[in-house]
Amino acid sequence: MCVIQRNQPGVRFLELGSKEQLLKALNRSEFNLETMRLVGKKYDVGSVFTGEYEISEVTPKINISEDYSSLKASTMVKISLSSRHWDTTNGATLRINSPMESGRSVA
What we know:
The chain is of the alpha+beta class. It has 3 helices and 5 strands; from the N terminus they run αααβββββ.
C-alpha cells in the first residue's frame, strides 16, 4: 500500500478485515467473480487486494569467539507472501504476486 500511495498520491484504501470476516459479511464461501462484484457494490470500491502470508519458525544463531571475548547473535526468519488484485466490476485479476521466500537476518 505504501508503494502505491507514494507513486499515486491521494489513493485511498478501505480495510475490509480478514478473508473470513469479509466472506461472512457477504454470505459467501470463496473469492470468485460474483464475490468480487458483491464487494464492489457493498463497499463502493473498484478493486480489491487479497493475500496471505506465512512466517517460519525463528531459527536462532549464536557465535561465541574462541577466547569468549565476543558474542554474535542473529535470527533467521522466512516469509512467504502471495497477493492478488481483483477488479470488482468484472472479477478480472489485475495482478498476482506469487509466493517467494526471503531469508532475512535479524540482529
